[in-house]
Design brief:
Elements (H helix, E strand, L loop, with lengths): L1 E3 L6 E2 L3 E5 L4 E3 L2 E3 L3 E4 L6 E4 L2 E3 L2 E4 L3 E4 L2 E2 L4 E5 L11 E3 L2 E2 L4 E5 L2 E3 L2 E2 L4 E5 L3 E3 L2 E2 L4 E5 L1 E3 L9 E3 L1 E3 L2 E3 L3 E5 L3 E3 L2 E3 L2 E5 L1 E3 L11 E3 L1 E3 L2 E3 L3 E5 L3 E3 L2 E2 L4 E4 L4 E3 L2 E2 L3 E5 L3 E3 L2 E2 L4 E5 L8 E2 L4 E5 L3 E3 L2 E2 L4 E4 L4 E3 L2 E2 L4 E4 L4 E3 L2 E2 L4 E4 L4 E3 L2 E2 L4 E4 L2 E3 L2 E3 L3 E4 L7 E3 L2 E3 L2 E4 L4 E3 L2 E2 L4 E5 L11 E3 L2 E2 L4 E5 L2 E3 L2 E2 L4 E5 L3 E3 L2 E2 L4 E4 L2 E4 L8 E4 L1 E3 L2 E3 L3 E4 ...
Parallel strand pairs: 1-3, 2-5, 3-6, 4-7, 5-8, 6-9, 7-10, 8-11, 9-12, 10-13, 11-14, 12-15, 13-16, 14-17, 15-18, 16-19, 17-20, 18-21, 19-24, 20-25, 21-26, 24-27, 25-28, 26-29, 27-32, 28-33, 29-34, 32-35, 33-36, 34-37, 35-38, 36-39, 37-40, 38-41, 39-42, 40-43, 42-44, 43-45, 45-48, 46-49, ...
Antiparallel strand pairs: 22-23, 30-31, 76-77, 83-84, 101-106, 102-103, 103-104, 105-106, 107-109, 110-113, 110-115, 111-114, 112-113, 115-116, 149-150, 150-151
Length: 1209
């Protein structure tokens, strides 16, 4: 260690020490790490100025003074002393600068005018004192502790550590703890905390406090600065300027606080007394805190939340009371000019609002059932439901981008204002009430206010000023006004209701030199009878529907954008309007586009324009003088052009309508300016201004229609039409009425129709007479040429010489009469004779058309050919291609029919081939063979062992003997296959098979088949259809597909298998088996020992007799009627729902539960599980799973069931 004598400008290195005492002074010394400088220690003042502490240490002790010291990283300055009465002066420092990592410890010493920069720390302890300290961002000032002065009094004075007039700048920190004191601090954006206390050293002396609290007096907090007091500490005389905050936490106390634009926040357990809250100042209470003696001045704020319960508070004029989450306000009063704000999670009850008071439902809060009284304001930034607004009351929904919501509001004379991004739904506006829906069109701004499902009653008004509304209903006396770009969609206007749409606003999108006009718009309005819709001043209407009401479109305003690319004038306009009834008018620069007229009248007045109108049947479009129509479609209605009207585009007909032109024309020629398109039959042009004279003509040449009457003529240009003729008549005012007409037509005539041997024929069965002229009648002349014959039929008049007439009637009736006419050729020799028919149809419009394509060829033929085989038999006999009668004698003949409708007597043991035709074959003996193609074949005879194979057709087989095999194609066949042991196979159709004897097999395809008879042991297999099977005998096997089948199985030991159908099955005898696969069947037995199996489905089993069994598998639903003895019901799954009636009267009945059905382990489990079904029966659940089914013994009490009735297998 090196001792350096006091000297200026010296650097004190590691291990060096300098002692500045006995009145010495040094200047500009530097103390490095490990170096030590001591200033003072004698009874004369020693000083050190401009010292730089660069990691070393400077100790300023009794009678020492250090000025303008700079403390850098790692450096420390210790300022100490001792409080002795009339003793030496403690160490003192002034104008110290503490940089990052530097530290100044004031331990019973004093410091003035210290600057603490980022990372620097000033500690004031043990009665130390700091005055005028400035704490910059990142710097820290700490004050704590106290000391006792050595004095000739008791108890001696306690001296607390103190910081006076400190300034805590933005992000600076000031901590007062352990009995420290701060006086006149300015918190200028920094953070200051005052907390804790220490025991007073003389607490046992009467009159002395128990503890010495940390305190701060005269503090000023501003510019986002924060002062926090807690845990037994005390602040007094605090001034909170704008954006300054005082937090009083649990155990903290604030007295005499003045709030000038700042905020004081009290936590639970905090105390704030005698507080004064001035303009824009706020007191926030979060929990059970004491704020007694608080004075709230004009424009002050009280906020309560976090469990605070305030009862009986009065918010004075211009004050704001805000209830935060968890806050409770009871029995309080909001005075005129005062405001109550309710936040999400807050609660209020029994609050009185004076006239002029304001209630605010803030974001997240829902106010329900509130009444806005006269003079009161209700602002909704959250949600309001079921509000009533009385006369003089006002509800304001939304603020800037704080979108509120109001639902089910009733406005009884008051006002509701719906602002930006806000919504009002299901509002009712009564007399004197008004709803204003507003918005603003600006880039990146929130959307306009919205209202939906509003009802405007008599005397009510909805004003949509740049707002957006939908689904409004305007009743009698109600008004909806759209202005400045407002929008309304789906408004319904009832009788006496009115919509007014006018005005526009301008929107300036980014990047463009011109603004865009947003016009007031009514979209998809429905105007009922007595309702009104008025569009003026650049308003627009889209897709309106007029059902008996009145709609007007008129006026315009100058376009405000100065954009040379858009029209200079914004005209009122309507597009897509549907006029069903009522009236629509356009005038004074208004424009209609794409109007559909289903009824009512469209009146185009002076300076009005209607483009692209469609006029349907029953509707009229009147165009007055000065009115303008563009492209128009006449779809069945009338376009009436008054004198002076202007038509400047094509007029198109689409449906029988009328174009009426009232412009007078007495002489000379005139050309109609608009092209007339699509004119078709029945369309009319009424030239009421052109007088009708005899000899008036209408001629079509190319696309030009010229109408001449007397010395005047009118010319039209036609397009898209095939009309070449017009009828001319006089209209109701003496003008000319033109009607488009066309030729009738004859279609479907067939030449070369054939018949034979003078057989009757309907030669006109395919002919159709068509007259395109609506309402016209037609008559027909029929002229025969060539071979003679006779034509006959209803309505036919013979005019002689082969000429006939059908009188005038409609084309359809004439066609029907023509179809029924019969022609019979006159007798002629062998060969053919041809008759040709000419049909001449005359329409009542004066047009005639003829057709000569119909002809009939009659061929005369001899009778059938008789062919006789040899008497010895054993012959091959060939038939002709015509109709033959073939006699084969003897036996073993082979007969080839070769076509035609033949009758064949095959002899004994014959083989017959009928490739086509409707033939009859008579067989003798056994072992015959018959083959054939398609046709209707009848086969009789045979004594057995005969094989028949025929194609499709309606065949009839009546065979005898045994062992026949019959195979048929599709058709409706009638078969008796023999006397037994025969096989019948047929395709799809409605077949009838009658069995005899035993051992027959029948296999049929899909259809509605009937199989009956038999003596037993027969097998019947049918496809899908509604079949009937009624067999005799026993041991029958019956299999059917899906459908509605009726089966009588036989006399016992029969087996029935049915598919997914609706079947009725009756069993005879005993020991029958029925298997149902997913069906809905009804099965009844007669004697007993029968087994019925249900594999799924919904079936009805009816048991009588004894020893029967029902087997139920899968997810079935079977109803069992037990009128038998000893019935066994086998239940093999848990997901079925079955009912059994009569089981209680069957003591020998048994329920077998198999495959784990019901998951029962013993009969005792079953008996304990029996429950009442609530209807006098007993219910057994088949498990506890959600899909588990049950057995319902519907008329059997639990007492009627015994353990012997149940078996687990």
């Amino acid at each position: 260690m090196t001792v350096i004598p006091p000297a200026s400008g010296v650097t004190i290195h590691n291990g060096d020490t300098m002692d500045v005492s006995y009145g010495a002074s040094v200047d500009s010394t530097t103390i490095e790490t490990g170096g030590l400088q001591t200033v003072g220690g004698s009874f004369s003042t020693s000083t050190a100025t401009h010292t730089v502490i660069a990691g070393g240490e400077q100790d300023v002790i009794l009678d020492g003074v250090a000025s303008y010291t700079t403390i850098n990283q790692g450096g420390i300055q210790r300022v100490t002393g001792e409080f002795v009465h009339e003793g030496p002066t403690p160490g003192a420092v002034d104008h110290t600068t503490i940089n990052g990592g530097g530290e100044q410890d004031i331990d019973t010493g004093t410091a003035t005018t210290t600057t603490v920069n980022s990372g620097g720390v000033q500690n004031v302890t043990n009665g130390g004192s700091a005055s005028g300290t400035i704490v910059n961002s990142g710097g820290v000032l700490k004050v704590s502790g106290e000391t006792i002065e050595t004095a000739p009094v008791y108890p001696p004075p306690v001296i607390q550590s103190v910081a006076t007039a400190a300034t805590i700048n933005d992000q600076g920190e000031f901590d007062v703890t352990g009995g420290g004191t701060a006086v006149n601090t300015i918190v200028n954006g920094g953070v200051m905390t005052v907390s804790g206390s220490i025991p007073d050293p003389f607490a046992n002396v009467p009159g002395q406090p128990a503890v010495d609290a940390s305190t701060a007096t005269g503090t000023t907090v501003k510019d986002f600065g924060t002062l926090t007091v807690s845990n037994g500490a005390l602040v007094s005389g605090t001034i909170l300027q704008i954006f300054g905050t005082l937090n009083v936490n649990a155990g903290g106390t604030a007295t005499g606080t003045i709030i000038d634009g700042g905020t004081i926040q009290l936590s639970a357990g905090a105390t704030a007394t005698n507080t004064t809250v001035n303009q824009y100042g706020a007191l926030i209470v979060l929990g059970n805190a004491d704020f007694s003696g608080t004075v709230f001045n004009a424009n002050s704020i009280l906020e309560i939340g976090g469990g605070t319960i305030e009862n009986g508070f009065t918010a004075a004029n211009s004050m704001t009371l805000q209830v935060l989450d968890g806050g409770v306000l009871n029995n309080s009063t909001v005075s005129a000019g005062a405001t109550l704000i309710l936040e999400a999670g807050s609660t209020q009850s029994n609050t009185t609002f004076q006239s002029g008071a304001t209630l605010v439902a803030d974001y997240g809060y829902t106010a329900n059932g509130f009444t806005v009284s006269n003079g009161m304001f209700f602002k909704v930034y959250g949600t309001a439901t079921n509000t009533t607004i009385s006369t003089g009351g006002q509800q304001i929904v939304g603020l800037a981008d704080l979108g509120g919501t109001a639902t089910n509001t009733v406005i009884n004379g008051g006002e509701q204002d719906v602002g930006l991004a806000s919504t009002a739904s299901y509002t009712t506006i009564n007399t004197g009430g008004i709803q204003r829906v507003t918005g603003i069109y600006m880039h990146d701004m929130p959307g306009p206010g919205r209202a939906d499902h509003t009802t405007v009653n008599n005397g009510g008004e909805q004003d949509v000023d740049t707002g957006y509304v939908t689904s409004t209903t305007v009743n009698a006396g109600g008004v909806q006004n759209l202005t400045n770009g407002g929008f309304a969609g789906g408004t319904i206007v009832k009788s006496g209701g009115v919509i007014n749409a006018s005005g526009e606003t301008i929107y300036y999108p980014p990047g463009g030199p011109y603004g865009a006009v947003i016009r007031s718009e009514i979209d998809s309005a429905v105007v009922g009878s007595g309702g009104q819709l008025h569009v003026t001043g650049a308003g627009i209407a889209k897709n309106a529907t007029i059902n008996g009401g009145v709609m007007t479109v008129s006026g315009s305003i100058a376009d405000p954008t100065n954009n040379p690319g858009v029209p200079a004038v914004d005209a009122s306009a309507a597009s897509g309007t549907i006029l069903n009834s009522g009236s629509l008018s356009v005038s004074n620069s208004g424009i209609l586009t794409s109007t559909t007229l289903n009824g009512g009248t469209l009146d185009v007045l002076d300076q009005g324009t209607a483009n692209a109108s469609t006029i349907h049947l029953g509707a009229i479009e009147l165009v007055e003088a000065g009115g303008i129509v563009g492209a128009t479609t006449i779809g069945g209605g009338t376009l009436d052009l008054k004198a002076g009207a202007v038509s400047d585009d094509a007029i198109t007909f689409s449906g029988q309508g009328t174009l009426k032109i009232e412009q007078k024309l007495t002489s000379g020629s005139s050309t109609f300016a608009s092209q007339v398109k699509g004119i078709s039959l029945g369309d009319q042009i009424d030239l009421s201004g052109l007088s009708y004279t005899s000899g008036a003509t209408a001629t079509v040449s190319g696309s030009t229609l010229t109408v001449s009457s007397g010395t005047a003529s009118e010319t039209f240009t036609l397009a898209d039409t095939s009309v070449t003729r017009f009828g001319i008549t006089k209209d109701g005012s003496g003008g000319i009425l033109l009607t488009a007409a066309a030729l009738p037509s004859i279609a479907g005539a067939i030449s070369g129709q054939t018949t034979s041997n003078e057989a009757a024929i309907n030669p006109f069965a395919t002919v159709t007479i068509t007259d395109p002229n609506a309402g016209a009648t037609d008559s027909l002349i029929i002229t025969l040429a060539g071979a003679a014959g006779i034509l006959s039929g209803t309505g036919l008049i013979s005019l002689g010489n082969g000429i006939y007439e059908l009188a005038a009637t409609s084309a359809d009736k004439l066609t029907a009469e023509l179809h029924a006419l019969t022609f019979v050729a006159s007798p002629h020799g062998d060969g053919s004779a041809t008759t040709t028919f000419t049909l001449s149809d005359t329409s009542s419009v004066g047009l005639t058309v003829s057709d000569a394509h119909t002809s009939v060829i009659d061929t005369h033929q001899a009778g059938p050919t008789t062919i006789n085989g040899p008497a010895s038999g054993y012959a091959t006999i060939e038939g002709t291609t015509g109709n033959d009668i073939i006699h084969a004698y003897g036996m073993f003949n082979i007969i080839h029919s070769n076509g035609g409708n033949d009758t064949i007597y095959a002899g004994l043991y014959g083989t017959v081939d009928v490739p086509s035709g409707d033939s009859t074959v008579h067989l003798e003996g056994f072992g015959n063979r018959v083959t054939g193609g398609d046709g209707n074949v009848t086969v009789t005879g045979s004594t057995g062992a005969t094989m028949m194979t025929l194609g499709n057709g309606n065949d009839t087989i009546d065979a005898g003997g045994y062992g026949n095999i019959i195979t048929l194609g599709n058709g409706n066949n009638i078969v008796h296959p023999g006397d037994g042991a025969s096989t019948t196979t047929a395709g799809n159709g409605n077949n009838q098979v009658t069995l005899s004897g035993f051992g027959n097999t029948v296999v049929l395809g899909n259809g509605n088949d009937l199989v009956t008879g038999g003596g037993g042991a027969n097998s019947v297999t049918l496809g899908d259809g509604n079949n009937t099977v009624n067999l005799g005998g026993m041991v029958n096997q019956i299999t059917v597909g899906s459908g509605t089948n009726t089966i009588i199985a036989g006399n016992g030991a029969d087996n029935v298998v049915a598919g997914a159908g609706h079947d009725t099955i009756t069993l005879g005898g005993v020991a029958n088996h029925v298997v149902l696969n997913g069906s809905t069947a009804n099965v009844t037995n007669q004697i007993g020992l029968d087994v019925m199996t249900a594999n799924g489905g919904s079936d009805q089993f009816n048991f009588v007799g004894f020893g029967n069994q029902a087997i139920i598998n899968g997810a079935a639903h079977v109803n069992i009627s037990d009128h038998s003895s000893g019935l066994t019901v086998s239940v093999n799954s848990s997901n079925q729902f079955d009912t059994i009636s009569g089981f209680g009267n069957d003591p020998l009945g048994v329920i077998d539960l198999g495959n784990g059905a019901g998951n029962y382990h013993s009969v005792a489990d079953i008996m304990s599980a029996l429950r009442s079904d609530g209807h006098g029966g007993t219910l057994l659940a088949l498990g506890s799973a959600p899909s588990a089914g049950s057995l319902d013994f519907v008329d059997t009490a639990i007492s009627q069931l015994h353990a012997s009735n149940f078996v687990i297998v």
